[in-house]
Design brief:
The protein has one domain: Transcription Regulator spoIIAA, CATH 3.30.750.24. The chain has 4 helices and 4 strands. It is α/β, with parallel strands linked by helices and 99 residues long. The longest helix is centred in the first third of the chain and has 16 residues. It has a 4-stranded mixed beta sheet. The termini are far apart. Helices cover 45% and strands 34% of the residues.
Amino acid sequence: MDQQITVIEKDVSVTLHGRIEQQQATELKDKLLGLTGSGCLNFTVDFENVEYIDSSGLGMLVAVRNQVLSNGGFVHVVNLSGKMKRLFELTCLIEIFTE
């Protein structure tokens, strides 16, 4: 998985590419939680070029969301299409990440 993380003040933009599996999910979770500790509140995660995400990747998103919400921020997932959109719908995560 390739990733690009851009921080502007308290807003974080995350662009992901490829497959998100356990190792990549753990590394990304550590980075994003580190940013929450630095005061970042609002996260937008772009899934346009994500081919696959496993359960650890989904769990990572939920864990980051829970931490961000407890700090008063939000996590939005954008550009879901095809398989990714169906997966988020089947797991009912679409409702909490695309509000």
